[in-house]
Amino acid sequence: MGRKKFPDVKDDLGIKISVPNLKEEEAIDDALMAYNLSCVSLSQGEPFVKFCRCAKDGAGNLAGGILAYSALWNILAIDTLWVKEEYRKMGIGGKLLREVEQEAASHGCYMAQLNTYDFQGIDFYLSKGYRIFGKLPESPRGHTQYYLYKYLKNHGQ
Question: Which of 63, 64, 140, 150 could, after both became Cys, cross-link 130 (CB 3.0–4.6 A)?
Answer without folding.
Answer: 150
